[in-house]
Amino acid sequence: MKLPRVMYSFYEHRLARTLTADELPHHVGVLVDGNRRWARQFGATTEEGHRAGARKIVEFLRWCHELNIQVVTLYILSTENLNRPREELTALLEIITNLMCELQEEGICRIQPVGALGTLPEKLQEQLLNSAQRTVDNPGPHLNIAVGYGGRQEIVDAVREVLTDADARGASLAQMAQELSVEDISAHLYTRGQPDPDLLIRTSGEQRLSGFLMWQSAYSEFYFCEALWPDFRRVDFLRALRDYARRQRRFGG
Question: What is the CATH number of the domain that holds 135?
């Protein structure tokens, strides 16, 4: 039983050594998918699947900290997820609240909530904002925690802010339409001021983005992994990083 574990550890170490700092992505986004399917595999409850997924998030951020990944965006809860059955949603919101507390205590990232926070229960809103304030000086990656997030809604909110700002300046609608630019929208996104993601990873074998960072991912590299999120291993992450390092990015070319 020990030999496979030793060989696995050797392979992981060897894989990590093939990656150099200048080949690593600056910003990694992850769609953490597969918690419910993982639970069904083991005859566990959906809540247990989400708890396993939360534990994996903490582990994943440790890997990012070790590898010096600068920015991480995790898609935790979409606006559509807010329509899940009441019992499941209540448990999931509690798990996310506890996760924020754990990450705050872990001290390995700087938390920034991104999403329509007003759609969330007050307790979770308060915890997200408190965690953001308490972790602002932490080392490790800048963590965008996408909760109550929808890519289309983010763009709508950005355009709304652009128009509101223009109105405050006394600009006419016609003038705004004439002057509106890509930079105007980018400057009002939830992730404003941050670099766009270099690499987007989705677990569970699904090959779609489900509205995740729709604007920001225009030139991102995508990596789809068969592992369900709670089963996602460090070696899976290293393989994604190796795949990214081997690609020649063209940025629309």
Answer: 3.40.1180.10
